[in-house]
Write a structure and sequence with these properties.
Blueprint: H1 2-18, E1 31-35, H2 41-54, E2 59-63, H3 72-77, E3 83-87, H4 101-119, E4 125-129, H5 131-136, H6 142-151, E5 157-161, H7 167-172, E6 175-178
Parallel strand pairs: 1-5, 1-6, 2-3, 2-4, 4-5
Length: 198
């Protein structure tokens, strides 16, 4: 009898997990910022997105500076109902000392897409991935990002990620987490691993 009870409980849990329930949003949305030189900023933002989807919320992600590179998470995200994303940039990594005009143009397009998403009223959560790096390196103006944060609708959760967070954006955020590198396999010559790091 005990095993039957466990099986029935497992079945009801599986049913609950497989069907997201839309939850009315009474609390105000927050601005959450993940920065620092440690690993895990995008991972944290994707965790928020995944949790939001489980409650029937609508999520949109804008990837700055991550255009054509084959990031594994982007393939997975296409399979999740309730989530959409746009990516901007090229296959090449940006050199902060020699930023190209086409890289600035891509970042400006990403910021405009961000503005449309934030102001559309279609989403509960909007993630601006690597926007902090894009603004720190001058691909987009920090003040434009700050203005977008100030204009966000009250119920929207807005997530910003990337290294080098400007103090103005830190001040505007409701939650700030700094990922601090304590150890990294790169120091031992271990490069980023497909399927784990990208």
């Amino acid at each position: 009898m005990l095993s039957l009870s466990v099986e029935m409980n497992a079945a009801s849990v599986n049913e609950a997990v497989s069907a997201p329930v839309s939850v009315p949003r009474s609390a105000p949305g927050l601005v959450e910022l993940f920065t620092g030189n440690g690993k895990g900023k995008t991972t944290a933002a994707l965790g928020i997105a995944l949790r939001a989807l489980g409650h029937g919320l609508k999520v949109h992600i804008i990837f700055f500076m991550k255009g054509e590179f084959p990031y594994g998470e982007q393939t997975s995200l296409t399979c999740l109902p309730g989530l959409s994303f746009e990516r901007f940039g090229s296959l090449e990594f940006v050199d902060p000392l020699h930023v190209k005009e086409e890289e600035k143009a891509q970042a400006r397009q990403a910021l405009e897409a961000s503005r449309r998403a934030v102001c559309s009223g279609q989403y509960d959560v909007v993630v601006l991935d690597e926007v902090l790096v894009a603004s720190a390196w001058g691909l987009v103006a920090v003040e434009e990002v700050a203005q977008l944060v100030r204009e966000k609708p009250e119920k929207l959760d807005l997530v910003l990620t990337g290294r080098y967070a400007d103090t103005r954006l830190v001040e505007l955020a409701d939650l700030v987490t700094e990922m601090k590198e304590v150890k990294h396999p790169y120091r031992k010559g271990i490069l980023s691993r497909q399927g784990i790091d990208y």
